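User: Before I run my own analysis I want an independent prediction to cross-check against. Here's the chain; please return only the structure tokens and, at the end, one sentence I can use as a sanity check.
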Amino acid sequence: MAIIIKKVSNKKELKTFIRFNYELYKNNPYSVPDLYDDMLGTFSPQKNAAFEFCEADYFLAYKDDKVVGRVAAIINRRANETWNKKEVRFGWIDFVDDPEVSKALLDQVEAWGKERGMEAMVGPLGFTDLDAEGMLVEGFDQLSTMSTIYNYPYYSQHMERLGFEKEADWVEFKLTVPDKLPEKFVRISEIILQKYKLKIKKLKRSEIKEKNYGQKIFDLINEAYAPLYGYSKMTQGQINQYIKTYLPLIDLRMVSLVEDEAGELVAVGISMPSLSEALQKAKGKMLPFGWYHLLKALFFKKPKVLDLLLVGVKPEYQSKGVNALLFYDLVPIYQQMGFQYGESNPELEVNKKVQAQWSAFESVQHKRRRAYKKVF
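Assistant: Structure tokens:
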């Protein structure tokens, strides 16, 4: 029977769109489900500030009256203008192992993009760089994280069969928290502090708003991430949204700031306990008991693994070893809190500056993900 593609046009269909991923990966030991309410907010033009500069439609694939795939078609006008491109993004793509299904979904994105003057298709990408991005191509037997995509191995086979080519790769590392920081690492960190007249600051909850540190952090991220693949500068609306939504959940012990002599922020590192196992137990729902698993992981019985969410350094300090100061501060805290491992989360494979910061730790590259591209 032919594949039927239907545009999501109401909340019931959006609910089906979100839940298809839960059903496809039900009981998969490596997939980490998103929270349903978070996804509703992400896909809502009224709640997601990225719609200030993005447009999107969502599509479901049906076969024999059964949902067999989904995809989001997105145009990020801000990114296209920044990088001088005319690209439509495909994101939140999932499908059963049927070549007709994946072809129908991506043909729909291509047609949607062409109607809007686009010349190429790229993905998986979200609305912005802070959404999950990149199709998993290595590490299928590794537990995913709350900020990354998990997919079956057959996905990439479908992409290549359909003529898509590699556009960019991200790599991920599993890091062992050392029992003690190497003396050389400590010595170099202390030299950097003195040489550049820097200081490490621990953030207080009241300072996020009163001293505008929330704004300072995201301004720094905008500056540090500007040269990275596909990045579009966060708008003030997005920054306000992230400050309100995410910073209250962060244990400030796991945040490190580096300031210069004048008190200007030059580096930031934000980490948190891994929520992967808690999200698996929650199964995408806060109720009736999903909230309990998440709060337990965040504040009570912390897991052995932590997620490194954001690491940003001002461009003029990126070759001066300043990122080492973040871990000079954070590693002893990780030790005190009982963490054994860290997940780096995705880093562009060409970003050697970032990967160099793991040289002081025992680490293994255990995942790789890919953005694919097809020119029309």
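Sanity check: The domain at 4-170 is CATH 3.40.630.30 (Aminopeptidase).
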